[in-house]
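Researcher: Next sequence.
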Amino acid sequence: VTVSASLAPQGMLISVKDDGPGMPADVLPNVFTPLFTTKRAGSGLGLPICKKIIDSLGGSISVESRLNVGTTFKILLPLAGEKAARMVN
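Model: Next structure:
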């Protein structure tokens, strides 16, 4: 797993990348759907909870994946603004 962060015009861009088996294209639209899982013992709540937290901060999360290559999650968080100010107060 590789994690990197950089400044973007919209805020802080965080990338989390792995070189695992990747996900099939038909799975990608559902990864942030509550209770959706491809794991036998999965709850399907981890990624939806992450998305809800990131959305509440005024950010965004996206996923890119290729079979037999790996998966990358990109998280964009604002550095300042109305939502960030509310979270501090």
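Model: Strands lie at 2-8, 11-18, 60-66, 70-77. Helices lie at 46-56, 82-88.
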